[in-house]
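Worked example

This section walks through a single chain of length 109. The input is the sequence exactly as stored; nothing has been trimmed or padded.
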Amino acid sequence: MPYTEVESEAIKERVLAALETVIDPELGIDIVNLGLIYEIEFDGETGDTVIKMTLTTMGCPLADVLTEQIHEALSDIPEVKNPEVKLVWYPAWTTDKMSRYARIALGIR
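Given that input, the structure is written out below as tokens.
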């Protein structure tokens, strides 16, 4: 059964909340507050979900670890089917993308 636009937006909010449980092991801050999540696409017809995200650096060795943690976090949301993580490099990540919380936690002004 297809989801309405309002229902789809609510599901995307739950996806975002689930992503806040994925912690960058090097920095100890979640990937949402670090500003690594660029977009969440949820198909209300199929439940297919695409997470567009970046990493702090292109050579970050944690890509596989974070992707695995994302899949695990999204497995608790029954509406999400076939989750896919797409790494994007544009726009490039900078500390400006971090939330106020992340900046304070890491001592960045």
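What to look for: The longest helix spans residues 5-19.
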